[in-house]
Design goal:
The structure is a single chain. The chain folds into two domains: 69 residues, no CATH class; 198 residues, Aromatic compound dioxygenase (Protocatechuate 3,4-Dioxygenase, subunit A, Sandwich). It is of the alpha/beta class and 310 residues long. Strands 1, 4, 10, 11 and 12 form a five-stranded mixed beta sheet that branches. Strands 3-2-7-8-9 form a five-stranded mixed beta sheet, with no helix packed on it. 24% of the residues lie in helices and 18% in strands. Bound molecules: benzoic acid and fe (iii) ion (FE). Fe (iii) ion binds next to strand 7. The site of benzoic acid has 9 residues, from helix 4.
Length: 310
């Protein structure tokens, strides 16, 4: 409060009442941001959000429905349940960002969506070990090599693998499951080879009991993903790779609800009979095997990005 008897002069109102003026003012409000990348992201986001509202003639009820949707997505999100990743995935944004950041059709293995079920801290397991810690489906042996683009083996690459069981659930979705069930880390041998026992994957619906599921239902979309096994591969000197092995016999390969299928990632799970001479000890009855080589790209110098610390 001014102590003088003269009331302080009000600042002249900014002339920013037309839609165009509001967009300009909101974008200009970031003009003094000292980090150029963050400034660009915020100004462009503002312009595109406003352009969206303008193009569809967004009503105030629709604006508030959007706010309620995001609020519910926040409320349902926990360490184990990431509704915002599901939203990004089902809107195709995750795969769009993947596409503009990864070379397509080159010599290296294509990447695909990470999804919400990867968790840090999977146990390091021996070459050829099983990731299922209790019955979870028909055993499937996954084996291959990790290579550079010239075909040379990469020794000591680390593969972090995870999958759902035949009850359709990942261990993180099932409080009764052993903590490390259906996941594990493996290192390639000197010749680049790796192997582990998984189970034949089954198609499953993404969690659809929250706002994203209601959005899918309201728009006539299904929540299913085709059967797959997740792999994250890392090796010093190479770009990390997040990918899947898709099962060629699965339903939903042509309508994955998160748009993550790439034809180069589809593999045949070969059915092996109980009397197959290669049947390993401890496996009874029918089993499957799948071959899957991974080709990693050499690291490139990084360019500036906005990270969560910023
Ligand atoms: C997954 O494959 O685990 C997944 C990916 C996107 C959304 C939900 C699940
Ligand atoms: Fe998955």
């Amino acid at each position: 409060m001014s102590s003088s008897s003269t009331p302080p002069k009000a600042a002249p109102a900014a002339d920013n009442t037309s839609p165009e003026d509001i967009t300009s003012a909101a974008a200009a409000s970031f003009a003094h941001c000292e980090r150029p990348r963050l400034r660009l992201l915020m100004q462009t986001l503002v312009r595109h959000l406003h352009a969206f509202a303008d193009e569809v003639g967004l009503t105030q009820e629709e604006w508030y429905a959007g706010i309620r949707f995001l609020t519910k997505a926040g409320h349902i999100t926990t360490e184990e349940r990431q509704e915002f990743i599901l939203l990004s995935d089902t809107l195709g944004l995750s795969m769009f960002v993947d596409a503009i950041n990864h070379e397509q059709g080159g010599a290296t293995t294509e990447s695909t969506v990470l999804g919400p079920f990867w968790t840090a801290g999977s146990p390091l397991r021996e070459y050829g070990a099983a990731i299922a810690e209790r019955a979870a489906g028909t055993p499937a042996r996954v084996a291959g090599r990790v290579l550079d683009p010239a075909g040379a083996p990469i020794a000591g690459a680390e593969l972090d693998v995870w999958q759902n069981g035949d009850d359709r659930l990942y261990a993180v979705q099932d409080p009764g499951a052993p903590e490390h069930h259906l996941r594990g880390r493996f290192r390639t041998r000197e010749d680049g080879t790796y192997a582990f026992w998984a189970v034949r994957p089954t198609a499953y619906p993404i969690p659809d009991d929250g706002p994203v599921g209601r959005m899918l239902a309201a728009t006539g979309r299904h929540p299913w993903r085709p059967a797959h096994i997740h792999i994250k591969a890392e090796a010093p000197g190479y770009q990390p790779l997040t990918t899947h092995i898709f099962d060629t016999d699965s339903e939903y390969l042509d309508s994955d609800t998160v748009f993550a299928v790439k034809p180069s990632l589809i593999r045949t799970f070969v059915c092996r009979k109980a009397d197959d001479p290669e049947r390993p000890d401890g496996v009874d009855g029918e089993w499957f095997s799948v071959e899957n080589d991974l080709v990693l790209s050499p690291s490139q110098p990084s360019h500036p990005t906005v990270t969560k610390e910023q």
